[in-house]
Structure formats: C-alpha cells, structure tokens
Amino acid sequence: MKRPLTDAAVKRLKPPAKGQVDVVDAGYRGLALRLSYAGSKSWCFFFHRQGKLHRMTLGQYPAMSLAEAREAWRDARKEVQAGRDPRQKVASGKTFALVAEEWLKRDQDKNRTAPEVRRIVGKYLLPNLGNMNVGEITKYDVLRITDALIDEGKPIMARRVHARLHTFFRWCVDRDLLPANPIAGMRRPASEKSRDRVLTDNELAAIWRGADKLGFPYGTCTQLLILTGARRSEITKLKWAEIERDRILLSPARTKTEIAHLIPLAPVARSIIDKLPVIVESEFVFTTNGRSPVSGWATAKPQLDRLSGVSNWHVHDLRRTVATGLQKLGIPLQVTEAVLGHTSGSRAGVVGIYQRHDFLDEKRQALEAWAKHVVAMA
Fold first, then answer.
1. Average pLDDT value for residue range 260-266
2. Mean of pLDDT over the chain
3. CA-based nearest residue to 321, from 312, 313, 309, 332
4. Is CATH 3.40.50.300 the right assignment for the domain spanning 2-84?
5. Number of H helices, E strands in the chain
6. Who has the most CB within 10 Å: 66, 242, 255, 270?
7. CA distance 61 to 39
8. What are the angstrom distances between the C-alpha of 82 and each of 52, 76, 86, 90, 278?
9. CB-based contacts of 77, cutoff 8 Å, min separation 6
10. Hey, what CATH class is 201-377 in?
C-alpha cells in the first residue's frame, strides 16, 4: 500500500486484522510505516544492498514523528548511496551497555535464567564491552573475553558467555541494530578435549624473562604463578593480609575446593613480593587503582606473548607445568597435590577423614627446589 502520509493520516491508520501491513510514504522511496495487528506502528526503511532487499527499523510511532522518520530516512539513504550499510551506522551510535540493558529488559527478564544472564553481563561483559559501540564489536573482542576465562580455568563460563553473546547479537540483528551477527560461525570455546599443554623448560624460561620485562602488575603476577603453582584468581586477588612472612594463607572462601590452603614462599618468591609497589590503603597486592584487583589479562597476555616469543598457551597451563615439573624433580605425588591445593579422593572418604597432615615442610622443600630450577633455567 502506497499513499502520501501526513501526521493526521498516520494517526488515523488502523492495525490489520492479522499479521502486518506496510504503508509506503509516497515520494520517499523505501520509507514505510509498518502496522501490526497488535496495534504497534514502526517506521521502516527498505533498501537494496548486494542484490538483496533489506529492512531496517528507524523508530516507533508516535515516539518518532513523521518528520523525524523522514529525516532518519534521508540519513539512511545517504549511507546506502555511499555504498554503506545504514544499519551499521545506527548500531555504532549505541553502546553495548545501552543495548544490553534493552535486550535484558525486552528479551531476557521474563526467563527463569534472567538472574544468571544479568550476572554474566555485569561481571564479564560490561567491564570489557560496556563502553564500546555495539556495531564495532568484533569476533576478536569476544575471543579476548572467552580466552581470558579459559586461561583462568573457567571453560564452562567461557561457553556460557559465548552463548549469551550469540543470543544477544541475534536479537540485535532481528531489531535491525546490526546487519549481521559478528560471531556467527565462531566455534564454541573450550568445547575440545581438556587441555594437556605443558610448557617446555625453554618456553617456561622465555615466559619468565618476558614477565620480567613486562613488570608490575601482570609480569610479577605471572612469576608468582610460576613459583607457587597457585590458581590465577588466588594470586591476582591476593591481599596483603594473606601474606604471613614466608607463606600465603588462603581462607576457604578464596579456594576452589573451599578448603584453607597454605602456600610456602621460596626465597625468590618472597623477594619478588618485597619489591612490589604498595598503593596506600589498598588491601590488594596486584592493583592499579587501589580499589580492586587487576583484571586486564586479555590485554596483558598478548604483550607477554610478544615479549617471551611463546604463543599458543594459556595462563592456566602454568599450573599444569608446575605440577609436571615437580614430578620431574622427584617430588612425591601427595606433596605435589598438596602444593596445588588438590584434595585426594572424597573428603567424606578415608583419605578425607584421616589424612590431616598438611605437608607444610614437604611443600616448602618442593617449592624451594622448583624455584631454584626455574631461576637456573632463566
């Protein structure tokens, strides 16, 4: 249906009995008002690109008046005439934070998984993508987030983040906020078999030297990970109050196993800590703002790769490498597990009930031997 539109005519238009109908504004090629049987009215722009007909939503009536729709039509038409996709311009004017909130409200909040989706968006997506224009987010930006989660030993969360972003971008395409899903065809992260990457002595030495060049906070943090075999979150979120002379004492709330974990510090590890800068009144050892622990591994890791010349490794591989290295040094398996903070068998079983020995002396000897080995290689 095509007819000259006026403010009065638009106001009088009635919704169809079923489905949708487009009323084209005569004289404005491609501009139409879409009427839905449910009563909604939205301004649309139809255009051809690469031999295909596309539609983009300009805005909702009456929030967008006829005059405003025609102005938006002119802007979109200029983009098409310049050989660009006008939907990309629309998307580039909206931040991820703004669009994500709209997505959560309109598409997710009625689902039973809404609290978990909001938690994922708030914890993992907004800190990394919040201020970016949604139309400028690339597959690489998403990979930085999922790779960082995998490096932290959180492959399941990496897959969840990927899945939520997939749903979000499809919603953006359906709403004409994006011309295409930027991660369409992207392989699901961490879906392959469990990693068994163990760094060679030469690779570990190169990473140690690269970390030395990188410096505080991520370089020194990496060196402590190498010397302790601790999980990344245990070191990156380390607090000054958790360091007692020549050892680190982590409460159950700070460990994956929810069991207190004591990590002896070899002299070289203690020396590294003694040289760290202290931000006044900050409880965190590795921080740049004094208020929170560091969280920019997605940026720091590529820098460390360049400085070390070692690629195709994850931060979590350091922990596996420490375990393998201790075994090569002849450290008994029980001591290696104690160093890593593993639990042998079920806590409700015989081992969990009767084995109360914490291997403190053995752990100290093991980590001191490992530190000497690392320093000798570097």
1. 94
2. 87
3. 313
4. no
5. 17, 8
6. 66
7. 11
8. 17, 10, 10, 15, 54
9. 29, 30, 45, 47, 86
10. mainly alpha
How many angstroms separate the CA atoms of 133 and 124, rounded? 17
Cα–Cα distance, 355 to 362 (Å, whole number): 15
Tokens of 286: 């590795």
Give the sheet arrangement for strand 261-264, strand by strand.
243-244, 247-250, 261-264
Which residue is listed with tokens 């929030």? Answer: 63
Q: In terms of pLDDT, which residue wins out, 137 or 248?
A: 248
Q: Does the bond joining 217 to the residue before it have cis omega, within 30 degrees of 0? A: yes
Extended beta strands in 29-154, E state: 31-36, 41-49, 52-61
Q: Could you tell me the two tokens for 129?
A: 């993508």
Whole-structure pTM value: 0.53
Domain 96-174 coded CATH 1.10.150: yes
Residue 216 · residue 277 · CB < 8 Å: yes
What confidence tens digit (pLDDT) does each residue in 26-59 have? 989 999 999 988 777 888 999 998 888 988 878 7
Residue limits of CATH 3.30.160.390 in the chain: 2-84
Q: How large a percentage of the chain has pLDDT more than 90?
A: 52
Residue with tokens 């922990």, as numbered in its chain = 319
- The predicted structure's pLDDT at residue 72: 87
For the stretch 75-89, pLDDT in tens is 889 989 988 888 776
